[in-house]
Structures
1.
Amino acid sequence: MNSRTARRFLVAPDKFKGSLTAAQAAGHLAAGLLDRAPGAAVRVLPVADGGEGTVDAVVAAGFERRTLLVDGPLGDPVQASFALRDGTAVIELAQASGLDRLPGGRPAPLRAGTRGTGQLIAAALDAGARTVVLGVGGSASTDGGTGMLTALGARFTDAAGHPLAEGGGALTGLVRADLSGLDPRLAATGLVLASDVDNPLLGPAGAAAVYGPQKGASAHQIQQLEQGLRRLVEVLPGPAGAAARRPGAGAAGGTGFAALACLGAVRRRGIDVLLEATGFGPALAAADLVITGEGSLDAQTLQGKAPAGVAAAARRHGVPVVAVCGRLTLDEAGLAALGVSRAYPLSALEPDPARSMAGAGPLLERLGARIAEDFGAGSRDPGTPAPGVGPVD
């Protein structure tokens, strides 16, 4: 392909977990495209769905990164960032309260809390934020968001009137919840809960039962966490019971519930919020082909993960989409349902998973080059590629 016939590519992948951030993946793809098509117009726009990588994605799109020390899941200081632009702050719970922030990576399902996430929200308010987007995912805690609320001025006390210990395990001893001290600036702040999780707070589909095992909770600990969350609903003033049943209340160990019930949050799909924040619409209008992807394209991808949101937005604008991935388990029907005309898996280049993950960057550059060949000069129209898995060399 030469500059006279170069096409316009929009490169918008999510992270390849365990290998590359979304920005790194996008950079490698862009390098491969430009190596084979040096005159191509390539726009890089990493994406995320509200979980890990959300702050990085919006910073790559022009937000300012703000970094500070906050309490980690067990109270130890950790360095965390939020992003700010034009009065909108984007906060990623995993930055402060995520599984990756646990000391030594050791789970602490009863003791882990979300105070650091509340500290990030308070810092965003100090920085002048009028809208706060709270991306939840990868949480280490099942504390019902009480740590977050405590950092924002709420008080949770036991029978003796003492502040409750951090973590979901202490909630069974909750006697009183006082929200009167919540930061008054919250009343004038729009809070968006960016989450694809639609679980309620309680019950067999709730936060403890479904996500407790991912945080290291045993069967007995799951029962204790469930009892604590039920106690929280009983003690909180206002219509907490109704909020506990709302989709998304079970997100991030009940942090979604706290945001909905106590902070007046509005829940939206994470990828939709992030696409708006990063200016995906205008970038899409200038593209002939969108390249999205993530570490694994599978059935979960179809449930609203980042590549699904990218493909849906592109489909609405009539722009074709291809995907790259480390592992592909979707068949042609699954790819069609996703809105992707062709998939390029790293496993077709390197079948050994360990080597594929270790060498994901160079492998993505090879796939970028192949996409440039398939959709560049002398290729078929980008709107009508052969369906299914693209051949790679």
2.
Amino acid sequence: MSNTVAVLGAGMVGVSCALELQRRGFQVTLYERRAPGQETSYGNAGVIARSSLIPFNHPGLWASLPNLLRNQSPQFRYSPSFLARNLGWATGFLARARPQPFEETARALDGLIRLSTTEHQRLLGLAGERHRLRDNGWLFLYRSQAAYDAGAAGRAVFERYGVRTQGLDAAELQGLEPGLKHGLFPRTLWVQDSASVDSPGAVTEAYARLFVAQGGRLVCSPVQGLARSGSPAAWQLRLNDGTTAQTDRVVVALGPWSAGFLKEQLGLRVPMAFERGYHRHFGAEGGATLGRPVYDTGGAYVLSPMAQGLRLTSGVELTDLDAPRNPLQLALAEEAARQAFPLGARVEAEPWMGSRPTLPDSRPMIGAAPGQPGLWLAFGHQHIGFSTGPGTAVLLGALMAGETPAIDASPFRPERFLR
């Protein structure tokens, strides 16, 4: 068993980790309670974005905090009872919206996104899915000049990190995306240093198929138990059907379920909150099209062309992982999107809903769990797991092999929250 690894979770992060460890010669088994790519990795805008280096808890958050706390913004909603039970997470999150920790996070995320972009291109080629990739960037739309001016600090960060952008006026936007309502957006920022795919769920599935085709083992059954077995570095898994399996190493990549699993199985307490989000697909009237994802900064939604139709994604809601559905933000997003684009009929009867795992510093945990030999962690990617999954795998693979990683691993070390 000295070379065996069990990867728990087959979202983008888990599948990428399985592929990378397989490439390094480990015998990998991938565990997922459903088919790969059907949970959190399914519901996103499909953007692989350099611009995602700016986390939600940036220095500009302080100025907008009074309005956000009113709990009426389409961009951000929260459950007061959830925040009351998680004040430690909330204060830690706000404490890191200062210049120094912000720069540390932005620098770390930039390196992880760059690494992931290269890996996505490689994996898309190996999986035969390059046709899903668009390399024409995405657009930040502003409904007024004042709103555009208010984004100057973010543009300065992009410039400092070398993210290629171009400012557009209304006429230039019309030439680039004629389907958008003319004149509604006087200013636009074209983030050119980004790519997108037309189905993040299908890409994750394709990576999983590649893993299996190369000899990997996929087990679609939830892991109900995790405990030490035999030697200090060996682990035993208990599956939903009561069967067990032994492995030398375990990688926990369960996304928003990671914190609950580690607490229940090993007593490890991870300070995690959950960014609830929704999406729904629409047709388009009159043959209107979009060539790339667009982010309406005033309407607080992203509209992205997908294989299933135009995917409308909502703002963020902080709430419990198993909280009841709240359709308000998606309804507000649809209302705003119909002002900007001739959306047609809804494709699905019910919208997709999911949660993204967020740690207080908006950085994932990537590395060995302290005091737990053979246990490795890869979760906490907030809403950019699709952008950062493959880079996470490369970083984790190097650490597990005892090599020097391609980027600095210290900003992601689990010890910053686990003792």
3.
Amino acid sequence: MKFKITLLMVLGTVLMTNAQMKKWTLEECVTFAVENNLTIEQFELDLENAKIDKSDAIGNMLPNLNGTTTISSNTGFSINPTNNLPTNSTAFNVNGNVSSNVTLFDGLRNLRQLNRAKMNAIANQYRLDDLKDDIKLSVANAYLGVISNKEQLRTFRAQYAVTEQDLKRTKELVESGVVPRGDLLEIEATAADQEQQIVNGESLVLISRINLAQLLQITDYENFDVADAEYQIPPSDILNNSAKVIFDKALSFRNDIKFSESNVKLAEEDLKIAKGAYSPTLSAFFQYGTRYSDVTQIPDGNGVPFTPNFTDQLWIFDGISYGAQLNVPIFNGWSTRNNVKRSQISLQKAKLQFEQDKLDLETNIQQAYVDVTTFYKAYEAAEKTLEARRLAYDYAKERFNVGLMNAFDFSQAQSRVDNAEASVIRTKYDYIFRLKILEFYFGIPISLN
């Protein structure tokens, strides 16, 4: 009795869990993928590094400040710090100084490093946003794959339900002697094929769900599912715009293009920084120092030598030094010249990559534009084919029911309907995805509403 109660409780928990399983919408999947993708998190860390580089560049323009303290003890031969004469004794010494340096001019390299750091932060933001765009498209494609497989599975089950009815009628016709038993065997074979289709369809649904879950980095595959829905062809006026118009608009906002353009600006700034090494560097310095030594001897007011205490020596022996330093580059083994040449090459490569990225974008948009038109025509053709197959199937069914058609020909008519329905589902979702890609290039967010 206890075992039965426990079993009922377990089954009840499972049923409640399944009933409460979250059904994900496309928008929820896209949002979750963007917020939890590991690659995005890595790119976000790169963006944080770029912001730190900006702080470094600002710090390079500020004066530095350093303090140094040295404590030492000498036994034996040494130089007396008070009179610079050799001595052979034990001495305890303390030296301290504070220094500051600031670069006054370095060919504007520090300023350009700051500009470059700002540009690099912007470029990393574009790269991050471009990755998010790619993930959104991948999630949308995987999501539509799940929906398409689910719709096909529903179709397979509906077809099997019709075949079951045909099988029941055929048994009655065989028992009444209207049709031969071979026709019943043919219908049974058709039913077995459809059962296999259902099994394969269930596998495809499961695999597509797992693929989508992996994109979202969700490991609880069994409890992950998308919202049940059957999408129709969404209305869209995107084809009212030419491919050229879509391309021109895409150039104004696409993150991959912005990232490529930012790389050109970064390369231009790198070239300016490299050329700045030809210029002299002017810096200023300031230093304050003092010392203490227990062997220090200075005369008092009566001319008698004595050793001042620690605090007094710090004030007596302190000193300040300051000045400026000019460093003029004359010859450095052609390193500056070669760095400039490397920067020039990098700039040319960045410009070529920018042009290539624009060309790739135009090619992709042209292809997407053609795909939308082509896949819609394929969908329309599949719809017409399905309508014709259904009419042929209804006619074949009437003939089969009165014994004017054998079961083999009838099953062939039904198989053609099954294939036509599968083709309609496939071409419909192929078209929807291509349509969403083209709209995405035009700046329209991904949505199935």
4.
Amino acid sequence: MKSSRREFLKKSTVTGAGAIIAPTVISSNVFGANDRINAAVLGVNGRGKSHISGLMNQKNVQVAILCDPDLNIANKRAGEFKEKYGKTVIVEQDLRNVMDNKDIDVVSIATPNHWHSLSVIWACQAGKDAYVEKPGSHNIWEGRKMVEAAEKYDRIVQHGVQLRSSPAVQEAIQLMRDGYIGRVYMARGLVFRERGDIGNKGFSPVPEGINYDLWTGPAPKRPFTENLVHYNWHWHWDYGNGDVGNQGIHETDLCMWGLDVGLPTKITSMGGKFLWDDCKEVPEVLTSVYHYPEENKIIQFEVRPWHTNTEEGVTVGNIFYGDKGILVVDGYSEYKTYLGKDREPGKSGSDGAMQASGIDRGAGGTDGHFANFIAAVRAHDKTLLNGPVETAHLSSALAHLGNIAYRTGKVLTFNPDSERFVNDPEADLMLTRNYRNSYVVPKIV
């Protein structure tokens, strides 16, 4: 519902979505407290390994299917699964077979970015709930379709930004809501990660065991190269979104959550490749600025690829600026504050310290985020979600806007209500893409 988009985050609670209105029709797929939930993990090369353990660590949840277009990887994970859990798991190469399997209740999506939204939409259409790795979308249009699908088919969709389930980060957000550092007017997102030279391996035959057509899915099908499969797709526009759309989604999400804003109206970005003469298409260094004139707030976001200084001791995290002090979030699970012009240390917190104190503050991290997802699935209540589908769309869209500003070389004006640029057809073309037959992201009507 586009008219309520800007108010979504403002109505959010610290620990949950709050603002999404659940449909009155309840799915027949409602679980009792002791009913087993059968899960499938889509994409098991990298982050999918954490999805497997995160689900298996939940009470009465069983990973039943591992799915990957590379059967070499899928079979390897199945062997590891058997050794670790003493159970046999089904291996699938085509995620459409997973969607057709009536025994699967939830899917956990750790595919490359270009598959995320379509996987969620297909899951919703198949009556399954979904946990989707960040970013929720590869472009802004398909992110909105993902939101619409979750609403239309009444499904539970959690975004894999586990810091939203961190008790320490939740406490930090509440401090800002309560005015602890004064009026918060700026957020800074930091992604300083070592990203080395990936070279240029050129084209090669598709290795045996990989269904490259399935791997490519909705994206343009290029000649096969090891520079795409299995991780370096992050650095190619057709499949990834650079580091602002990789690690950076945790930080774009927290910037918006902490500032209590939706999408901006003014965006500019500048950067480039300064270190490596390799085949990466995305910038190694990227600085983006997102302006909210109506709210009188601003987001600054910076990506750096190699040896660099820290900021307030942080290499990956966020800094919030208020008129009484600053609040620093380091990584996913701890924060510090500094007050006044003399930078007096203020309140701080970490998930580890909270747990060590014996206070029951809940669990952060991947397991805690999956626990939150499973609780919402069992209750069939999307208001319980810490990272609901709308936030997946918005935090991903913020990264996409910065990338579009960089690629067009313009200061862009954006309409958050229509989710289109103002009088800029060139930029509008980058809001979506042409999809290949059999892998089209559908309109949701």
